Amino acid sequence: MSRSTAPKRTLTRSRHRLAPCLTVAIACLLAAPLANAQDWGDSEDDWSASPAPAPASTTTSRSSSYGRSAAAGWSLQAGVGFTADPDTFLMNFEAPYSFNPWISAGPAMQVGVEDHHTIVAPSGNVRITIPDLPGRSLDRLHPYAFTGIGFAYIEKDRGRNDGDGVGLLIPFGVGVEYQVSEKVFLGSQMMFNFLPKETKNEGFFFSWQMAGLRFAF
């Protein structure tokens, strides 16, 4: 699926003449993809432009910070990977709406293409996300699980089951996202797709969105 971006490098001060040039070059490369991360830092209120809250309002402030980090509202997600049995190249598209840091829901579309197979599987999914893992070093990781309902169109161009068919789809899966900035997330997810009534002799297919990108509005 989407390829992961190169990790950030922290430059140390140097007396060599090339150090300032390298610093400027790397800063320019990172400026565009991280334009929305201007308030990213090590404070407890990432992306917050407001002053530090008083101790009495700590709980409310942290809840608000998590709401921002989960990017409440609509977002668009796309990723690539593969399906197995049948084997295809996978393109996955989603448009989830986050009601709060924990719960989001929205339409999703799996499209699998191969020389002799085609899968088109739209569904409506509900996602449960863990927005805050224990430990400061894991704040940007957001594991999640989801399930939904939809239908799958499967077309086969060879073999005894050639032709096409449509059947009920019940997907569920797990994934994890890495938060690059307030509104940009990189992720990967595995999807287990059940067809209660076999479609073109298929009762199940596995999908792995190996790399994905989600942008929140």
Structure, explained:
12% of the residues lie in helices and 50% in strands. It has 217 residues and is mainly beta. Strands 1, 2, 3, 4, 5, 6, 7, 8 and 9 form a 9-stranded antiparallel sheet that branches. A hairpin with a 3-residue loop joins strand 4 and strand 5. The protein is built from 2 helices and 9 strands. The longest helix is centred in the N-terminal third of the chain and has 14 residues, at 18-31. Mean pLDDT is 76; it is low at 1-19, 29-54 and 56-69.
Q: Which properties best describe this structure?
A:
9 strands, mainly beta, nine-stranded antiparallel beta sheet, 217 residues, 50% strand
Task: Write a brief caption for the model.
The chain is mainly beta. The chain is built from two helices and nine strands; from the N terminus they run ααβββββββββ.
**How many E-type strands?**
9
Note the main sheet. Answer: 9 strands, antiparallel
Shape: elongated
Q: What's the helix count?
A: 2
Structural class, judged by helices and strands?
mainly beta
| Series of secondary-structure elements, N-terminal to C-terminal | HHEEEEEEEEE
Percent range for β-strand residues: over 45%
What gyration radius follows from the Cα positions, in whole Å? 21 Å
Mean residue pLDDT: 76
Contiguous uncertain segments of 5+ residues: 1-19, 29-54, 56-69
Fraction of residues in helix? 10-25%
N- to C-terminal distance? 22 Å
